[in-house]
Predict the structure.
Amino acid sequence: CVLLLAGCSEDFLERTPQGVFTLETYYTTTEEINTGLTYCYQAFWISEMQTGRFMVGNMMTQDATKGGASENEGVDIKNNIEYNILPNSSMAYRFWGPCYSGLTRANMMLEMTADKSFNEESPKGYNYLERMRGEMKFIRAFYSWYLVTIFGDVPYFTRATVSNITPDLYETVDRSKIWEQIETDLVEAIPVLPKRLEYDETDVGRITRGAAQMLLARTYMFNRKYDDAAKVLRDLIENDTYSLTPDYADLFGMEVRFTPERIFEIPFGEQEFWRTPGLGGYGTVMPQFQTSRDDG
């Protein structure tokens, strides 16, 4: 009788997970990178960002007024309209959280794709990876723009933070540095983004070169770089296909999308918005705030 004893190393117990995606192994094709970019786009849908932009951009001006049955409704909104902004302001949170959500998503995808190189081109001749990285840079600039214009000096970072949380992330950064990063991202994004009519039909609705030019021009104007802004806007007017819509009413309505007058449009689906049953198939909460009361 022969007795055989066999042993194995500890490596036998350390098996690579099968069927589980990781950040380090997933983004290897343009299709996989596009799923991450879609996650960046999804940040535009966050309802607090939608309502926050309306409340700060419209309700704190004379363009809109706070409604309600009594003065006891919407006290926080009333305080903000009167510029009595408290540290626990819900309106401030509506921007703070979603802005950092969008910023973090764009940072992650830019870092995950930094060393990638694909030569895949669309039927209209642009490189898919370069275009997608341009979209990511616009998204980072977009949320950075709102952070700096609303809050000024804020904690700011341009690296992925999924598993790399360090104390420096909470350090306040001078707004001039943030403006510089916004300019850099947009200047780099503009050459690789397609113009409005250069996208394939299946990609209509994505961020365009014109959108990046418009945000860069606004960035220049906020920093009193008017000559730089004029140069960007002149190129936008002369070398793209934007124009005023003859009938102003054609800018509104669920069936109207991507008219030549709209430089940056965030499209929503036609499903009912989950927080507002009965709103009627807009896919967003905004019609509840901006539609005429006569429309129901």
Notes: The chain has a mean pLDDT of 81.
